[in-house]
Amino acid sequence: MGKLFLGFDSSTQSLSAVLIDYDTRKVVYEKSLNFDRALPQYRTQNGVLPDPNPLVKHSSPAMWADALDLLFAAMKKDGVALGKILAISGSGQQHGSVYLNHRGVDALQNLNPLKTLTDNFRGSFSRGTSPIWMDSSTAKECAEIRDALGGIKAAARATGSDVFERFTGPQIRKFYKTEPQAYQETVSIALVSSFMASLLAGKIAPIDQGDGAGMNLMDLRKKIWHAKALATTAPANVRYGQAIAKKYPRNSSSSQMPAVIESARNHRYSAGVRGRMAIARPRAAGTRASFSGDIRATTRHWPFIYASISTHRIAPATERASAGTCSPSALSGRPKRHHR
Fold first, then answer.
1. Phi and psi (nearest 5°) for 45?
2. Cα R_g (the chain), whole angstroms
3. Which of 264, 305, 310, 313 has the smallest CB count inside 10 Å?
């Protein structure tokens, strides 16, 4: 096999991998890991944690990290030449959010390759579970944000859509209101997609603008976080700690998205690691990792449309849109009606 490109899809129910050989333009490997069956200790049902409130739909960020370990281990066992992978791209279920405390940020920068990712991140989540796209428990928070922004039309002009229950902004506001101490301990807030990219890169990865368009937090025209939406979602004060803007990484366009895997010693996927779960890392320093939300970025479906997938592109991608669950427009800057 020649140049290899790896695509992941971190969906609600599973984590899947597709490997493409650049030279032959063929899929050379596929693997899917179902969360319920492969990781029964998390007790999910179709990837979702049971809750007495039918409106609450959360999952476990530790489970997603565990799944990444297991999938790479399976790839190594199946003889995949991980050392030849030039770039990794992926999609993560849109809107879902992950909350790291200071230990989580430190863990990313100092990953111990002798430990599993879940062991590395033990005690690192300020919010133990992650609200996902299916959650509809934030109607009150939606109304609060919508009213503060000036109504439906004003919210749509500001952030690209009306305020919806599963969007990340209302979910953060609910966390801010109901668990103020845990919110105060939160140092970094990620989307599922940027969290998965961060695990691979060993540092906080930026949020893709196409994915950020489904948060009710981004100014679509300027492609930056919307100051009023941020302040409305979680106002800064002494009790609740730093402003929400400081808890978010930058957002980036497609051409700037890749997080470079820079140091082999920080990664569990390093060649030569010994032990029961030891696996080879994807290539030497310089391998690129990029995730977005809901676009099905597994390279089988859109092999090279991402500018982020590699420096070895067939053609550079100049546009990027979030075309999944909510279909907000991240390109035109014009609000788009929400569809399900």
1. -120, 110
2. 19
3. 313
The CA–CA distances, whole Å, from 263 to 59, 108, 251, 279 equal: 30, 12, 23, 16
Q: Has residue 261 been placed in a domain? A: yes
Secondary element (H or E) of residue 21 = strand 14-21
The answer to the question of residue 205 being in a domain is yes
What kind and span of H or E run contains 315? Answer: none
Residue 181 lies in a domain: yes
Backbone φ/ψ region at 129: left (φ over 0), alpha (ψ -120 to 50), beta = beta
State which residues form the domain around 54.
4-309
Residue type, 107: A
Q: Are 226 and 167 in contact (CB under 8 A)?
A: no
Residue-wise pLDDT for 306-339, tens only, equals 323 332 333 444 333 333 433 333 333 334 344 3
Tell me the one-letter amino acid at 15. L
Instruction: Please give the Cα distance from 48 to 166 (Å, whole number).
Output: 14
Closest of 207, 202, 313 to residue 256, by C-alpha: 207
Q: What angle is formed at CA 226 by the lines to CA 93 and CA 186, rounded to 5 degrees?
A: 60
CATH number at 291 reads 3.30.420.40
Any domain includes 71: yes
Domains in the chain, number: 1
Q: For residues 3 and 85, what is the distance between their CA atoms, to the nearest angstrom?
A: 7
As a whole number of angstroms, the distance between CA 121 and CA 168 comes to 22
CB 187 within 8 Å of CB 105:
yes
Instruction: Report pLDDT digits (tens) over 227-256.
Output: 899 999 988 643 333 456 667 666 665 555
For the chain, the residue count is 340
